[in-house]
Amino acid sequence: MSIPQTVVKAHATGNDFVIYADPDGTFEPTPDEVRFLCDRHFGIGGDGLLRLTHPRFVSDLDADTVARLESDGAEWFMDYRNADGSLAEMCGNGTRATALFAQRLGYADGVGGEPLRLGTRAGVKTLVSLGDVAPCGHDVFRVDMGEWKRGETDAFTVTIPGTDGSARGTFVDMGNPHVVSVIGDGVSSLPAVDELNLVVKPVVNPVLESDQNAEFVRIDATDEASDHGSATMRVNERGVGETLSCGTGLCATGVTLLAKTGIHHWTITVRGGTLLVDVSDDRVFLTGSATLVGRVELL
């Protein structure tokens, strides 16, 4: 196998991963190995695989991309693969799990130290270690998720096969593609967020060639005076299915909610926990916890 004998199980608000360090670039996984490791019955189980390595050891990056990442201060790279073995541009929760893993290995500073500049296929993401922060929990990181791009509000129709009704969706590019639907907005005829069957992959029209993550969100409260709102989100991720959390999906949700409400700061609850999303005119910041569960020795 082209993976090390010892790997680590990690999660960030329930978005779970198999993760390992590859500082010498000798353990680039094959799609079959990713599928095996992420299989919840025959492998370890996870929504995806994270390989912590240097940019120059990632075979799908060209020389110009490697040079750009390194010039932007990214000594380390998060090589993320979906559970189906496909490459992924970005995983917001994965950056926090990777940062905590890097801390424990001595590759990144702890609370009060220098931020970690982590390379991804969507560019360099900067993570600040905050320690314990309510309501997020332990080992919390604030991630500068970078620039966002949003399409026309409610330009897509979103349905779920086997479920009556439809919703309008908004496209958001967070380095990977998302379509976000607000449920209970007077337009959606889908069931309540808690009742949706997201084991079934949602259908988005017009079709996106890239496929997409599909988020469904309920606005729970807003306060214009404090510029703060709270919401509940669920997500079906391309190449994975429903997950307990999706970092880029949370950011895409914050961008969509800003467009609909004018509110910039959100506390968003997903099935795996609670996170903070702060949206400016050109950037998104995501704050949440990460957990290393244990080491696993492959036989």
UniProtKB/TrEMBL annotation:
Subcellular location field: Cytoplasm
Keywords: Amino-acid biosynthesis, Cytoplasm, Isomerase, Lysine biosynthesis
Catalytic activity, reaction form: (2S,6S)-2,6-diaminopimelate = meso-2,6-diaminopimelate
GO cellular component: cytosol
GO molecular function: diaminopimelate epimerase activity
Catalytic residue positions: C91, C91 (proton donor), C246 (proton acceptor)
Keyword Amino-acid biosynthesis included in the entry's annotation: yes
InterPro entries: DAP_epimerase_AS, DAP_epimerase_DapF
Entry superkingdom: Bacteria
BP terms from Gene Ontology: lysine biosynthetic process via diaminopimelate
Pathway involvement of the protein, from the record: Amino-acid biosynthesis; L-lysine biosynthesis via DAP pathway; DL-2,6-diaminopimelate from LL-2,6-diaminopimelate: step 1/1
Protein name: Diaminopimelate epimerase
Organism expressing this protein natively: Bifidobacterium boum
